[in-house]
User: What shape does this take?
Amino acid sequence: MSTSPRSTAPAPGLRRELKVADAAAFSVGLIGPVGVMALLGAGAAGILGAGAAWAFIFALVAVSLVAYGFVRLSRYISHTGSVYALVGLTLGPRAGFVAGWALFGAYVAIGAGSGIEIGLFVGKLLRGLGLDATPDWAVVAVVALAVVLALGRREVRVITRSLLTAELVGAVLVTVLSVVILVRLAVGTAPGGRHLSVDFLALPAGTNVNVIAAAAVFGFLAFAGFEGAATLGEETRNPRREIPRALKIAIAVVGVFYLVTIAAQSLGFGTDAAGVAAFSSSESPYGDLASAYVGSWLAVLLNLAAALSLFAILLGTVSAAARILFALGRDSGSTRGVARASAGGAPVTALTVSLVLVLLIIAGQRLVVDDVLDATFYALTVGTIALLVAYVLATLGAIRFLFSRNTVGTRRAPLWQVAVPVLALALVLYTIYRNAVGLDAPYSWFPLVVAGWLLVGLAVVALSPGLAASVRSRLAQADAEATARLDAGEPAPTTAGGPQ
Assistant: This one.
């Protein structure tokens, strides 16, 4: 098998055609910031009141610290398995498989939650247009999945451009609304006599770091998918350079968008008790604020933008999940089933499997949960906890890979920088703890659901010694070649096949 230093060989069928803008667009689309802020700000306000912004500030800091490991590792490793490869090459193939399994499950669950939420906003859109129609949210989600199946089988460039287009339209509309709100607050023409202030940073009396960490699940969910560009490591030109840049661009752009939007939402509703109650109970913060500050026509457009952004999240998460499953199947030694790619470069079988799992979650939710908001948050919370587990393993791998001495006694990063991933690890572990202990049902069940999913992944590895051996062989060979050339001081090629 031919491999390049710092990257594993691309599988047949995957095409190396993307640039940094495409990779960044994939991460941004996977995050879906417009769809995220259509609802998660209200969820954070339910815990932190007027200080809902702190959930996103906490998560932005933590995700930036976590991203350090992804960015540094992506300079050495480019693989469509994302966390699977990053952990597999640093902590070993079994840990890598479990990390990939966790991320795969996270994307599937988050995709299901986003699909359910599409139904909510489509219903609001139709009512805003004056149509007396409330389609079942499960039916809307199934239609969205059918469209994802059609797009997901096409070239990856089509997917990234679709994600970017959906987000750009919505981001422009949300930014316009935020600016209007802040300007009207500043000049004194806001409804209810509200005015511009820094009260959106005020926390309720008695709030401590425990409460902020509990609310931070909404913030982490808001950034879920920033690592999505790493799944394009075998489809991006010069991935060693472009993937790290794409990750940093995605976090910076989305972080600024979130802070402006949550400030506008909190102040727009008002930071008094009545305003906080209205914000935290709103099923459509965009629509409610647009109607109050601009007009009902903008509310209709924003509900449409939210639905499109949520569709982008669904498309992005299913596409990313398919690539991880493809990598897990391919590195197990198979060339069939989920390891098969189409002539157009799409992991078609893995895509179908991912879609079926999303469909099963949606169907299960529809059978046992009546409220669309509950169904949305249940799936999203499970996905976020699984995602945080993958972040923990990736961060541990970064610590070992970057700060352990290599064969010639040197480190790949200055030792003082170890404080960054260590702090990231502490914040993520604490967030997991706060969202796993002391909660009421059904939220107290969700960590158990994630634990069960991880046990399935562990069982697959334990009961399939041939699988573990194959993964170890493929990843170890790439790691040995990468380490030998890096230690010798040889510069890395710009693509997996060598300099282009």
